[in-house]
User: Fold this.
Amino acid sequence: MNFELNENQLMISQMVRDFAEKEIRPQMKNWDDHEIFPVETMKKLGELGLLGIFVPEEYGGSGFGYAEYATALMELGKVCGGIGLSVAAHNSLCTGHIYYHGNEAQKRKYLPKLASGEWIGAWGLTEANTGSDAMRMQATAVKDGDDWVLNGTKNWITHGLSGDVAVVLIRTGDLLDSNGITAFIIEKGMPGFSAVQIKEKLGVRASETAELIFDNVRVPEANVIGNIGDGFKQAMQVLDGGRVSIASLSCGIARGAYEASVKYAKEREQFGKPIAHFQAIAFKIADMATEVDAAELLTYQAAYLKDLKKPVTKAGAYAKYFASEVAVTCGNEAVQVMGGYGYTKEYPAEKFLRDAKLMTIGEGTSEIQKIVISREILK
Ligand code: COS
Assistant:
């Protein structure tokens, strides 16, 4: 076992750190305050190769694996969870669904534009009344001539408004039939397709979230991914990988909160000495350090299995469950270490906490991860 980052990971972490300090940190408070999704920054991330990280070079991607992908998200998470979430959703969900399940023509048409950042990707599984219970979705697609006609809505969709292309999971069969859901590729501007931004989120406010609305949207057969009825299982596999990315982002947020806490605890003096010298604070630092390292180990284990093309359902759920909860703990402890200052937007702690909370919800709540883990163990 090798616990060191490989050459590519070292290169990527330095590149992302440099980019984040120059292009993200100076602007992120404005994005967070005003819920601005910085499309131009996404395009620059595309130029750096971070929007098609695991897409092979023949489709315009960077050709890296999940280990490198995890490293990139860890670095982004240390600075801005919102941008990290957008990068994760773009890569794992939309781009990943087309890469893993699309046919050759779909890969050639969409992957180069998604990988370069020319197009931003979205992915829609959830609806207003079906989140954890994804299979009970209500949106329908009915065959009409050579086209499929889509009706219904999708909710909580990252890049639902600014996205140029979306992969959406829609019912083509009976309710609760696991072979009754199909994946379709939707392009911006298709008649009957619209979106409304969801505002007033607690965190990840630089990442756009929207509701998608389908009103008799005609989608050609060429935009069906895989076989009719395969969509739910494709989506579950896509989420297995997506959960590794949310675990990675969670590790970054946790480490960012931990590092900010260490810095503050060494500088802040009370009772005549730095607060780091009090065991009450030092033990918080020890707990955070241990948990962040453990979260990273679980996350890299899942990334490693994914790169080996081994089953990642359980390992991804372990990593996502543990790392996201650690991110919330570290964000919360960072606020506590910084006291009154931690409670203000002048210090980074409160944003880490707000951004971290989404990690325990998006791409399957912590409770869903425990369902996935226990089912894998007990099956
Ligand atoms: N990979 C491949 N196939 C999978 C799978 C996976 N990881 N997980 C489940 N499946 C298959 C099952 O094998 C089953 O196939 P059969 O019907 O042929 O036997 C089918 O999918 C249905 O699975 P299951 O019966 O487990 O479905 P449930 O409705 O019980 O749902 C959970 C399972 C709860 C795990 C699923 O709905 C889920 O992950 N929910 C959360 C969704 C989520 O994360 N949403 C957030 C999206 S934000 S981007």
